[in-house]
UniProtKB/TrEMBL annotation:
Protein name (Swiss-Prot/TrEMBL): ATP synthase subunit delta, mitochondrial
Localization per record: Mitochondrion inner membrane
Main location: mitochondrion
InterPro entries recorded: ATP_synth_F1_dsu/esu, ATP_synth_F1_dsu/esu_N, ATPsynth_dsu/esu_N
Keyword Mitochondrion recorded: yes
Source organism of the structure: Syncephalastrum racemosum (Filamentous fungus)
All residue ranges annotated as the ATP synthase F1 complex delta/epsilon subunit N-terminal domain in the record: 34-106
PANTHER family: ATP SYNTHASE DELTA/EPSILON CHAIN, ATP SYNTHASE SUBUNIT DELTA, MITOCHONDRIAL
Pfam families: ATP-synt_DE_N
A single GO cellular-component term on record: proton-transporting ATP synthase complex
Length: 165
């Protein structure tokens, strides 16, 4: 064993107690509610509100988040965020992207670039915008216009998929 390997092992062992992680089922139960803060650059949709569960589309996969979830930071894909406020009250939002931070104290912070309630979106208007973005992406515009149109196509397809569920 060389000196660098040994010193790396000693350093890792010195910090091991500080790096100990537990699963949500092993964590002490502090609450049965998840405290949600869901913000956009221009307004707060939820600000410290107790909810039962939040389902979201992250780059690592779809997630269901409850109280006492393992702390993590997730990048959001364009997709649906479902907020289950209580057993019979559920709200769904389409987000274009952002980040979700799950904290050890059963708080969830969602920062999204844009979000819209699914009930406010029209399948016909989304299809029309998708068709226009596809024409622009395939057209004779500049490379910058085509790249922007490809991003629009991806988002409109995700919205269309969300509305078809």
């Amino acid at each position: 064993m060389n000196v660098f390997t040994r010193s790396a092992r000693v350093a890792a062992n010195a910090f091991r107690p500080a790096l100990a992680r537990t699963y949500a089922s092993e964590a002490p139960a502090t609450t049965d509610k998840l405290r949600l803060t869901f913000v956009l650059p221009y307004k707060a949709l939820y600000k410290g509100v107790d909810v039962q569960q939040v389902n979201l589309a992250a780059t690592s996969g779809d997630m269901g988040i409850l109280a006492n979830h393992v702390p993590t930071i997730e990048q959001l894909n364009p997709g649906v965020i479902e907020v289950i406020e209580s057993g019979d009250v559920t709200k769904k939002f389409f987000v274009s992207g952002g980040f979700a931070t799950i904290n050890p104290d059963s708080t969830l912070n969602i920062n999204a670039v844009e979000a819209a309630a699914l009930e406010d979106l029209s399948v016909e208007r989304v299809q029309s915008a998708l068709d226009e973005a596809q024409r622009t992406a395939a057209g004779a515009g500049s490379e910058q216009e085509k790249a922007a149109a490809k991003v629009e196509v991806e988002v409109y397809e995700a919205i269309k998929h969300a509305l078809s569920k």
